[in-house]
Amino acid sequence: MAKAKKNRAFEFLGETVAPGERKVIELEAAKLYTHSPLSIPVEIINGKLAGPTLMVNAAIHGDELNGVEIVRQLINTIDVNKLKGTLIAVPIVNVFGFIHKSRYLPDRRDLNRCFPGSEKGSLASRMAHTFFSQVAKRCDYILDLHTGAIHRTNLPQIRADLSNPETLRIAQAFATPVTVDAPLRDGSLRSEAERLGIPVLTYEAGEALRFEPICISAGFIGVQRVMQAIGMLRASRKKLPNTVIAKSTSWLRAESDGILRTLVTLGEKVDKGQVLAYISAPLGHSEIELTARKGGIVIGQQTLPLVNEGDAIFHLAYFEEDDDEVEQVVEDFIEEIIDADLEPLTTGQINTHN
Ligand SMILES: [Zn+2]
User: 26, 174, 220, 262: which could form a disulfide with 39 (CB 3.0–4.6 Å)?
Assistant: First the structure.
């Protein structure tokens, strides 16, 4: 085997991180009304050996917390002497939203619609610009960690532009049971970085404002698998688990206002015409059924039992493969995560709030 090349120093915001060194550097994001500076903590872990630059970031939506814990676990396990390349770990991008337990920024903008941003724009746009130009553009790969929005939960899944073969390859390495070939959405970190040719995966798992052990462990394992696939960590001999690519997805919306009782959970197979939930008046009269229009797998759902007509209740994914097979892939996946028995796994099931 050829001897691995030595890494170079990584220059970041005027600081130098030598090969084999790790450093926490504050990226100044904005100022508060009080003139106190608000900064994004960034940890640069510069491997002794040469390799790609990968950013793993979380909480672009400030209330999406599972990824914050994934990043913490990841940086605690990296051995800088064995790492090839540079890991840029950013546990909290939207520091404003994080402080307020909110998805948004104080100007009520969604940071993940503001990339690549502009130096002279609104607060959100400036922050996007700083983060995009100083951090994202430096990367060869990006793993962007998300959860469902508030009162919504997602089956662990990768969303990515699979028309980029390298993005497809790392999505298969991450190996969540379901992968969604998601179109690029203007202004998102994923779209704008993909446009520059940087492969980006969006990992979606669980619900906002929670720590969910299965989602955290699955993300932690997936990130490590990607790092193996791109040569940053030593490859494992273990065969990658299956991931099934969804042909399409759609939301099933509430057809009336009322109280929701859900009959299915994440990862479950549903048949065309199957009743997935009831929506009723408080006393249970005038109940309506919410039925699947097509057979598929539940990959996201509302957890709050109070709904208005038109609310998106179930996110269903549709496959070329037989739905029983896909359901089996999900079951195998959850078993694998439980068997891996990682910190801080305490419960045996994804919290589906059924
Ligand atoms: Zn998000």
Answer: 26
